[in-house]
């Protein structure tokens, strides 16, 4: 179930600790596009295409610890049974670990991973200084009732 959620989710909710302004130190969250590999090569490792202009990325560059929650919002069980994604019968996966910049030797794989699942991101403004991050998973929590 955890691998299914990592493979089939195209976005997730990333939670960080705010690194700026009046909310410094407080929990902060944002939805980000993700991919765990090209369509034919799912790895279970979430990759992200991010910009330093995003507050979440600012947080991660100061403190890389984060959690990523992947809901079964689009899963067959919830959709077929017309069940709200927050219903406990719909699985949720939360991964925690460190978000790191993808090293040069993995950038080509990260590009294939993101662009094969999200082709539109290639057209995003280059002036936003996009780069790739991935989560080095340390803990896995699966809610699957």
From TrEMBL:
Entry-linked Pfam families: CREG_beta-barrel (PF13883)
Subcellular location: Secreted
Record-linked InterPro entries: CREG, CREG_beta-barrel, Split_barrel_FMN-bd
Broad class of where this protein is predominantly found: secreted
Keywords, ordered alphabetically: Glycoprotein, Secreted, Signal
Domain of life: Eukaryota
Domain CREG-like beta-barrel: 1-145
Keyword Lipid metabolism: no
CC annotations in GO: cytoplasm; endomembrane system; extracellular space
Entry annotated with the keyword Signal: yes
Family of this protein: Belongs to the CREG family.
Name by which UniProt lists this protein: CREG2 protein
Organism, as annotated: Quiscalus mexicanus
Gene, per the UniProt record: Creg2
């Amino acid at each position: 179930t955890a691998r299914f959620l990592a493979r089939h989710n195209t976005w997730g909710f990333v939670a960080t600790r705010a690194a700026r302004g009046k909310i410094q130190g407080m929990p902060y969250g944002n939805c980000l596009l993700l991919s765990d590999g090209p369509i034919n090569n799912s790895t279970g490792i979430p990759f992200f295409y991010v910009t330093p202009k995003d507050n979440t990325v600012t947080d991660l560059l100061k403190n890389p610890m984060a959690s990523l929650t992947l809901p079964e919002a689009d899963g067959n069980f919830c959709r077929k049974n017309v069940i709200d994604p927050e219903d406990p019968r719909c699985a949720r996966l939360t991964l925690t670990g460190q978000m790191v910049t993808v090293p040069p030797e993995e950038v080509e794989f990260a590009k294939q991973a993101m662009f094969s699942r999200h082709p539109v991101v290639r057209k995003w403004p280059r002036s936003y200084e996009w780069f790739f991050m991935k989560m080095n998973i340390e803990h896995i929590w699966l809610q699957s009732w």
